[in-house]
Amino acid sequence: MGHHVDIYDKAGPEGTESAARAAAAMLAPLAESVITEPSVVKMGHYGLTRWPQIIQSLDQPVFFQQNGTLILWHRQDAHEAKRFSSALNRNHALMNFLKAPQELTSAELQELEPALQGNFQQGIYLPGEGQLDNRQLLAALHSTLVQRGVQFHWNTPKSLEDFGGIHSVGSSDSNDWLFDCRGLGAKPSWPGIRGVRGEVIRLYAPEVTLKRPMRLIHPRYPLYIAPKEDHVFVIGATEIESEDLSSASVRSTLELLSAAYTVHSGFAEARILEISTQARPTLGDNLPAFQHIGHRTLQINGLYRHGFLIAPAIVDAALEFVRTGHHDQANAFGVSFVKS
Questions:
Q1: Rg of the Cα trace of the chain?
Q2: 179 within 8 A of 315, measured Cβ to Cβ
Q3: Where would I find the H helices in the chain?
Q4: 262: which DSSP letter?
Q5: Per residue in 41-84, pLDDT tens?
Q6: What whole-number distance in Å separates Cα of residue 158 and Cα of residue 176?
Q7: Is 149 exposed, middle or buried (0-12, 13-18, 19+ CB in 10 A)?
Q8: Strand, helix or coil for residue 333
Q9: pTM score of the predicted model
Q10: CA-based torsion, 199, 46, 288, 14: positive or negative
Q11: Could you read off the pLDDT of 156-198 as tens digits, one per residue?
């Protein structure tokens, strides 16, 4: 849009203190519909069309895949899988802009994902869903923005008061805008924000080749396995109401690794590249929101576990407000927009 942009970040360009670096970056609106609201599903569907455009504008390649999502379960979890399937079908009927879920037999599963080697008798395929490589994206965004003249101020934590407070920033006699996208760092000025802890394992498994992300029905949560390039896999699922960022628990690690092994025995010889923890910035209703404070200060927060899924919709809604002063797109997506 022709503006000069400065970005302040409390950490460095690798994003080591952000949920974005730890995430699996799956783009699965129908799969998420079982545990979230229709507004998130609508934004996720929008994001699937916008992400390829965004990635194409970057100066480095970013792995992007749209091979669908596979839902799997073991025999003992068939009852839970039936509930999950019913929810998918019900949500698809309400949001028929999404592609319909497809129930698969053992033979159909084997044809779609040969590496499963007949380990599962049934499955559900969600066509059109996707994923991207979040770490490649962070690197490509950084490189591209540097090329475009964006000024980065790394290891420079800031508060609203550092810019004169909410009533001084972007005052009526100034053309400056301030966007507060600090996640949990915005708690002093947005008290409703809380952290939801997640634990993620990254593996290198040269004996495993999977074509698409998979979600395994689990008694406590749907575990996911997201295959990235070069036999790297991101495994996660945990949601713990805590902002504790200490190391992952033995229980969570055992559950994640054991579940992965039941999907493919080749994970037994995988190498653990990283076990990371992060806290997702979350509001009381687990939905994102905008707060327009001062004259040209916009707070954006609460993306919870859906950050990559809904980010394009959130960004485009914010840009509409900057351009026009209206928030019709946010309203259409069902995102709260509060002026104060």
A1: 21
A2: no
A3: 19-22, 29-32, 38-56, 78-94, 106-112, 134-147, 250-263, 307-324, 328-333
A4: H
A5: 999 999 999 999 999 999 999 999 999 999 999 999 999 999 99
A6: 16
A7: exposed
A8: helix
A9: 0.94
A10: positive
A11: 999 998 987 655 555 555 678 999 999 999 999 998 999 999 9
